[in-house]
Design a protein that fits this description.
binds NADP nicotinamide-adenine-dinucleotide phosphate; seven-stranded parallel β-sheet; single chain; Rossmann fold
């Protein structure tokens, strides 16, 4: 059975959870990686309850050994690897301490390197696979109060593009999905209820729609590959 590894899995109603559910519904055994045991287990259980195959793995995207262990768990059938870990904490550069900047880079960029490298090491001997990265508006532009996040997400995008060019000829389809706006998931709806209310349902990007984008990239034929898609609501000002 083909396997998919997703790292950066949080609540069921979050992008990591939605991606796990989507690729499991497509017939892959999904390895859901994340830092919080209860969350990854709940995502894996929801997939098994729906008749799919899933395994929860506690993994920290910034830890080299932990990322390798996640891929070891997924075994030889690896077909899809998705780097979804990311945080978005605002802050003015003048107020930022060095650790804060570095930790944003570790989660949003360095972890992508660890994960992407491990995926490619396993894809190459078997002739290819799909490696996808979750981006954000900050992948494309810097914005006041988001210096650390923009630097890290921009770095991740360039890493993804370099890897697409480096490993495309060897059968690895590397893609980057720019999520340009707030996601209508638990992070915003529960974490920032006033913001969610202000945006309204029409103003938040649908989890299903984003999962469609990832599935679309994975299903593309070798002779028509897309590196990047951007997704936003119809009402987004961009
Ligand atoms: N939410 C939005 O509005 C939005 C908008 C644009 C782009 N994005 C991007 O979408 C992705 C996340 O989607 P989401 O917001 O719906 O969240 P999510 O996929 O529900 O959850 C992401 C999970 O990543 C986990 N994580 C953080 N650091 C990690 C690490 N070092 N190792 C392993 N896991 C880690 C966090 O879980 P723990 O804290 O339990 O570890 C978090 O729950 C990120 O790449 C983000 O930049 C989000």
């Amino acid at each position: 059975m083909d396997t998919a590894v997703v790292i950066g899995v949080g609540p069921l109603a979050g992008l990591g959870g939605a991606l796990c559910q989507r690729f499991a519904a497509m017939g892959l055994h999904v390895f859901a990686g994340g830092r919080t045991k209860a969350q990854v287990e709940s995502v894996a259980q929801s997939i098994r309850d729906a008749g799919g195959e899933a395994t929860a793995v506690v993994a920290d995207a910034t830890d080299e050994a932990s990322v390798a262990a996640l891929f070891d768990a997924a075994g030889d059938g690896l077909a899809v690897a998705i780097y979804n870990a990311g945080n978005n904490q605002p802050g003015r550069v003048i107020d930022m301490d060095a650790d804060y900047f570095e930790s944003a880079w570790r989660v949003c960029c360095f972890g992508g390197f660890l994960f992407g490298r491990e995926a490619v090491r396993r894809f190459l001997p078997k002739g290819g696979g799909t490696l996808l990265f979750t981006g954000a508006s900050a992948s494309m532009r810097g914005r006041a109060n988001f210096g650390a996040f923009s630097a890290a997400k921009g770095g991740l995008r360039n890493l993804a593009q370099a890897m697409a060019k480096e490993y495309g000829p060897e059968g690895v389809h590397v893609g980057h999905v720019v999520v340009d706006g707030a996601i209508g998931g638990e992070k915003i709806m529960r974490g920032f209820p006033q913001y969610a209310e202000k945006l309204g349902e029409q103003g938040m990007i649908s989890l299903e729609g984003i999962a469609d984008g990832f599935a679309y990239l994975h299903n593309q034929p070798h002779r028509a590959w897309t590196f990047e898609i951007d997704l936003r609501t119809s009402v987004e000002r961009w």
